[in-house]
Model the fold of this input.
Amino acid sequence: DVYALGVIAYELVSGHLPHPRLTTSTLFEALDILRHEQPPRLSSLSPQARGDLDTVVMKALASEPSQRYRSAAALGDDLQRLLDHRPVLARAPTLRYRIARFVRRHRALSIAASVVFVALIAATTISTLAAQRARAALAEATARAAELAAVNDFVETMLVGADPETGGSADMPLREVLEHAEQALDEATPAPRVAGQVALLLGQTWSALGERSAAQRALARAETWIDQGFGAESEEAALLRFAQIEEALRADDAKGAIALSTDMENALTQNPAPWAAAMRVRTRVIHAQALEATGEVEAAIAMDRELLADAQLPHLEDRAEVSDVIRHNLAFALLQVGDFQEAERLIRITLASESARLGSDHPQTLYTKKVLGQTLHRQGHLDEAAKLYEEVYNKRRARYGDDHPLTLSSGSQLAAALNTLNRAAEAEPLLRRAIETRIARNEGDTREAIIDRVMFITTLDKLGHADQALALADEVIAKEKGTPTRDTLMARAARGTLLLKAGRIAEARSTFDALIKLAPDILGPNFPNWPVMLSNAAAADLAAGDAATARDRLKPVLELLTQQRGAEHPQTQLARSRLIEAYTALGKTDEAAALQTSADAKTHAH
Done:
């Protein structure tokens, strides 16, 4: 960023680019230019730039990252000093280097990442790796910085104008650009260090675009070159392996991500280098995300809590960002186990931090607003949740377009709230578009597509299309192929409810019984919708005249729902009314009356 601002300032003042030949050079010609050529002093092209202005701009363009400003903000501060006719700081170069920026996994950004993001990775990698070399030999540091500056220039030149974070995807020209870049890499046969860095950046870009096979191929090539050029225990190799872990998680290979994370954490624990401790924190963040993705939610919660208390965290240069990521992940995991109030507290802290740090409309801030909506949704604050979902959906739609993955996911979330608010007619077009778009992209079997179908079952039912809803539930269940998941179990639960409404009571009970046998191993005891499933199973028991079984299911369900969602939540009220019905059917009129009196008192107090 600082180098790019320096280029802009240079051209604004002088009318010339600092290295005009780079605009027509190949990557490897650019390497040679940056190794052997220095841009003319700004003052030599524009005499009015003599003095502090020349010093400030040339500092931003320094070949070695350590001699540049530490941040764009620092450059801005020095420019303000110049405008105020105060002494500038450009003559006192810093020796401190920025550590590599953490490549974070947010459920929303896992689908799309910006070229700006990739350029930042490159820029910070330049600084970090140059610092490593400087500790060994200043001459090698200078040469290394020039090589990596060329890699960064390659990214900025080749990928400009194709920003996936603002709506790009694999079918944009960026795909062709990346393919040509890979071809150029093959033809040029550069040194392993340069080839490894370029292949790593290509792999990260393919990964951010959702191109799994291309990403894995590029990262595998990068591994060979980086291990050869830097060594398997180097920081460069650690950055490469971190990218491989992220790619595994994006490819829905959470178990693979856990295995890779565990190996990397063990290796980093044995590494005495200063960067290793910080990298271990980042790796554990991804590890916790992978645990949550496999259903090991309690283990993910424990790891996230350990990370927030990690003594290394306050020493990270980007500690605010990493802390936000950890809190966000912890809150999301707590949602899965029903601790909605703690999740809401953490998300509100994270949202305040991100709004101040990134801005209220930043993609990450919008994602956090969506998660806040989920915490409110689960607690029954439906109107407030729907407003947040709608805000996120409208802003993403305006920025990315109707069919971008982020727009589709936020539209689906809004549809879930609309279903709960009995506004199924508004939910229907959102879910239908999401499902059709994913199928058109050959993504019909992804988890996101399955979740959309499960929600659409509810929408169809509420719209009076029970037969279509039941057929869709059977379609989702068929995708289990012998391996049920959380999402297909939700389809089983919906199927049981549909059968019950249709009067097919024996089939409904059979469906719920099978679900209840599968659920403990797949959902875990703290799955938020588990008490709702049991309540619906009890409704089938009541319909079959088995009030005793219904009572035994409903007593713990009512207690759990009251604890999780409050006495006035619609699901809590429904479970209470079913339990009163069970008591009445069993002749337990005193228990039924006491429960009704308690319910009336709570309603009156509310």
